[in-house]
Write a structure and sequence with these properties.
Elements (H helix, E strand, L loop, with lengths): L8 E6 L22 E7 L3 E2 L5 E2 L8 E4 L5 E5 L2 E7 L3 E5 L2
Antiparallel strand pairs: 1-2, 1-7, 2-5, 3-4, 5-8, 6-7
């Protein structure tokens, strides 16, 4: 799969959400919410500013990020369901 996002766009693969609650109850797929964490697969060159300069992105390939549950646009590429977000839709980067 080769995808090159434009501007300040970021391609993310959602991480799998837990299907069991802390109390041990197994949730069916219909009750589970879409995960709001993912791994960055590709990053655009950055946002073009009014002065003609480009603002470098703040995320890198491989980063684990948190984003809004309904943010971005879902696309299917080579059978994989991916999410394309603007960098501004990403709330933060998870660090170990």
């Amino acid at each position: 799969m080769n995808i090159r996002p434009l501007h300040d766009r970021v391609v993310v693969r959602r991480l799998e959400e837990e299907t069991t609650t802390a109390g041990g109850i197994v949730l069916p797929d219909s009750a589970a919410e879409k995960p709001s964490q993912g791994e960055v697969l590709a990053v655009g060159p950055g946002k073009l500013l009014d002065n003609g300069k480009r603002q470098e992105p703040h995320v890198s390939i491989g980063d684990r990020v948190i984003f809004g549950q309904y943010g971005g646009n879902t696309v299917k590429i080579d059978g994989d369901e991916l999410l394309i977000l603007s960098e501004s839709e990403i709330y933060g980067v998870l660090e170990d």
